[in-house]
Write a structure and sequence with these properties.
Length: 594
């Protein structure tokens, strides 16, 4: 590990005329090196003939993610069962807690991306986050063991604590361990994907296609890890014990850490091309633009002409109020901003409408791990006389669908679309996202119809007031909505990943992927808020709420119809914003141009 001193995102110095000693026969020619890329010893990487990076390194990183997703899904997919089971929480409370955890786990990558892009670099952030991950999962395993001991040994009135409740310490220790996992995942998730995409040179036509394909295979790897976890861990947790159910993910994360470290010598490492903090560079634009808001560009003809030339090249004629950040002034504070800084700021601002209009999809996305699972728990899940499918294992249908559909998308759909449109990726990233959103609407309609059927079966068999009985309706009725979810994810989730990696400045790509994850996080929080509001509104006058603990008295079908309508509104807003979006083009002029 002693050779990793150059991997933090330190600013690359001004390029000297000769980057390697002339006597070094292995030194790549200056014109044949990858800009802003070094090996694990900090040496420049040749653009041709180098064995670093590419699919070999990317495959290693995908392997890391498979193990990490196995670990994460192993504790999160069945979390609602643990909360309503050993932790004795109500369905609505457990669903809200699950959504809050998922929301935090999806928002914390913003912090992890900030640390990586500003201070530690992606490699070090992944390394430290992985160590924290292993420790957090170890604590979670211990908390489950304590909970199991309490459930077995407590007496009805021992210390005034009921056997049906957890002690305050157990609750605190469990949730502290759980959110420690969220913090670790926040550092790991955005950086490892950006680090994987960094293994391809976006300026090379072939490697650019490979990078676009990487996002598809990356998500396939995630799905393999998740499907394995859903199938194995839900069975272990439901039929063996929760200590083992949380301990196995801890072992999987340890394996992920080992795989990542073993690939150290094969990776390409990105270095910043600017001495300034990338967040500070963008913040400076907004401060300078506000400071110069009453000034006119004509006060500096050089800035005006440079801006006009750069914008003609980049195609960024909107958000012109930020152009005033390039005007030089005698006021105190930061100096005038470069054209590159302004274009970076504009690129970030242009993402805001896409983020906002994707939130409804994120609310829908949150349902598969909460109410879909509880629906399945009430239905006939038997296979043969002695085996019942664990409710959380139903989520594996989403992952299986993704695993089956991604090769079709990558090897069949994209080549056909490429011939029609002439685009390297077949369709644009925003078109891909919009198609997935349309499919999510259909999935909600199907889910509502299936839930209506389930409630009718409960009425027909006189089981409405029976809280814990099995409804004589096969669980396979839920499969179509899971399959539609999986296909929608291939379009929307993978599209969002590629979009937020590609459309942010190079130095902020971890942040770009964190923004994508934050959409899912905010969606989980909004889902929790929506559940709380609907429960309060619908539970008056002695009537059960839409989310009654007795799902035979609940009305999840109404909730799904509501989400379908909201999704239609969200899709219309997204299409409007996507139609006016200007794709960011990489700036080619020198960053000191001003």
């Amino acid at each position: 590990m002693g050779n990793l001193q150059n991997l933090a995102p330190k600013s690359a110095p001004r390029r000297p005329r000769t980057t390697q000693p002339r006597c070094d026969p292995m030194a790549p020619d200056e014109s044949e090196v990858l800009e802003g890329v070094v090996d694990h010893r900090g040496r420049r990487v040749a653009s041709r003939g180098s064995t670093l990076g590419g699919w070999r390194s990317a495959a290693c990183i995908i392997g890391v993610e498979i193990a990490e997703r196995f670990a994460y899904c192993g504790i999160s997919s069945n979390l609602i069962t643990y909360l309503t089971g050993p932790m004795r929480q109500s369905v609505a409370t457990a669903a809200a807690n699950v959504n809050a955890f998922f929301g935090a786990a999806s928002m914390l990558p913003l912090l992890g991306a900030f640390v990586a892009d500003s201070y530690l670099g992606r490699y070090r952030t992944i390394l430290f986050a992985s160590l924290l991950y292993v420790m957090a999962l170890g604590f979670l395993t211990l908390s489950a063991a304590l909970q199991s001991h309490h459930s077995l040994d407590c007496l009805p009135a021992k210390n005034g604590i009921s056997c049906h409740t957890s002690s305050p310490f157990q609750i605190f220790f469990f949730f502290s361990s759980l959110y420690l996992v969220a913090i670790a995942q926040g550092g790991h998730k955005p950086c490892v994907q950006a680090f994987g995409a960094d293994q391809f040179d976006g300026t090379n036509a072939e490697e650019s296609k490979s990078r676009s394909s990487f996002f598809n295979w990356w998500y396939l790897g995630i799905s393999v890890g998740a499907a394995s976890s859903y199938s194995i861990m839900s069975y272990v947790q439901d039929n063996l014990n929760w200590s083992l159910g949380f301990g196995i993910p801890c072992g999987a994360m340890t394996i992920a850490l080992l795989i990542f470290v073993l690939g150290t010598r094969t990776y390409r490492y990105s270095v910043k091309d600017s001495k300034s903090n990338p967040f500070g560079r963008i913040a400076q634009v907004f401060v300078a633009a506000a400071r110069n808001r009453r000034m006119t560009p004509s006060s500096s003809e050089e800035h005006e002409e440079a801006a006009r030339t750069a914008m003609a090249r980049v195609g960024s004629l909107r958000l012109s109020f930020l152009d005033k950040a390039m005007i030089d002034s005698s006021s105190k504070g930061w100096r005038s901003c470069s054209i590159r800084q302004v274009e970076e700021a504009k690129a970030m601002v242009r993402l805001v409408p896409i983020v906002g209009t994707s939130l409804i999809y994120a609310i829908v996305y949150a349902q598969s791990s909460t109410f879909f699972t509880k629906q399945g728990s009430t239905m006939d899940r038997s296979i043969g006389p002695n085996f019942r499918i664990p409710p959380a294992a139903l989520q594996s249908f989403i992952s299986i669908t993704i695993v089956l559909f991604i090769p079709i998308y990558d090897r069949v759909f994209v080549p056909i679309a490429r011939r029609i449109t002439g685009k390297p990726s077949g369709i644009t990233m925003l078109q891909r996202i919009g198609i997935g959103m349309s499919l999510s609407i259909i999935s909600m309609v199907v889910a509502a119809l299936v839930e209506k059927r389930r409630l009718q079966v409960a009425v027909d068999f006189g089981l409405v007031d029976a809280k814990s009985v099995t409804i004589p309706m096969r669980v396979w009725w839920l499969v179509p909505q899971y399959i539609l979810f999986g296909i929608a994810d291939v379009f929307t989730i993978v599209g969002l990943q590629e979009f937020f990696y590609d459309q942010v400045p190079n130095a902020l790509r971890s942040l770009g992927l964190a923004l994508y994850l934050s959409i899912l996080g905010v969606g989980n929080f909004l889902s929790s808020l929506l559940i709380v509001i609907i429960k309060k509104v619908t539970s008056g006058n002695g009537h059960p709420s839409w989310f009654s603990n007795n799902l035979q008295l609940a009305h999840l079908d109404y909730f799904y119809w509501l989400l379908a309508v909201l999704s239609m509104v969200g899709l219309a807003a997204f299409m409007y914003c996507a139609n006016s979006y200007i794709y960011n083009q990489k700036l080619q002029y020198d960053e000191d141009t001003s």
